[in-house]
Amino acid sequence: MDKKDIIILGIESSCDDTSAAVIRNGVLLSNVTASQAVHEAYGGVVPELASRAHQQNVVPVVDQALKRAGVKKEELTAVAFTRGPGLMGSLLVGVSFAKGFARSLGIPMIDVNHLQGHVLAHFIKENEEDEDQPSFPFLCLLVSGGNSQIILVKAYNDMEVIGQTIDDAAGEAIDKCSKVMGLGYPGGPIIDKLARMGNPLAYTFAKPHIGGYDYSFSGLKTSFLYSLRDWLKDDPEFIEHHKEDLAASLEYTIVDILMKKLRQAAKDTGIKQVAVAGGVSANNGLRNAFREHAARYGWKIFIPKFSYTTDNAAMIGITGYFKYQDGDFCKIDQPAYSRVTLK
Ligand code: KG4
């Protein structure tokens, strides 16, 4: 290994995935994630169970990531970790481990904003030749279980949130509607699968009327719930008989809401490079809408690989790599934060 190599260990533990990744000179060597099935029975993430599972997983996951990368801990240049936003108990496990590990090795620790990590997932290189990355400025639609934002990305370290949800996030709305239908958790992948077999125009649900580039999904959720309640009065088997059409119509409405504001932002800023990130970016309807917009409006689009849509440490590692080059380090007494935004 070259002495000048910059080798970053990334650690992610903000919600229910314990993940570790190793990045050498900006190229990903390993990315290991332990997901927590324990929450499925509860229809949502149970914070206390999540932090306990992180405690069990963090050491083996880091160990695996180093082994798969073929890197010894003494060769690491710095340890990057998710500092927030997220569940405090979950964050504390990753933050404490990362700080202790970095301190024991005598190397810098780098705190990473989880949201910035999602955006910079587009810069993860799987090999030296991997050059298909956005250039600045670009727009990024960040859609997950906790966020729905339009971000104007001016540089690695300069991002401006120009629109965001004023209530529920898109993923949260999908998960809640899926729960109402009695489907499993998380609802996103299930709705996605059912939607492929249904008619997106079968039903219409309320859409928000708010200004600027902001989003709102709570009205849609209520409209879905009330419509379902009425239909179930006439046919108690309504969900079973129409679940594909319900999923397709719900997905269609959410994608339509998301793309309308994004289209407006692209038009107003004149920016034609548009990326999507976060857990909901795995959704096939949303991915197709991006492709249609690329063809129709001449956008150059950036859609992440499925493995980088949900929470992963590769995105934390790549963000840490950029911050390392800026000399932007974290002090031992800087705590985890559960709530934080991009600027
Ligand atoms: O970014 P992420 O892993 O973490 C959180 O913010 O928690 O996003 C999780 C969200 C969940 O709401 C999940 O239902 C949604 O992403 N999701 C999807 C799909 N896969 C995951 N939503 C729609 N279609 C999918 N294929």
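^ KG4 complex. Residues 34 and 169 are 24 Å apart (CA to CA). The longest helix spans residues 238-269.
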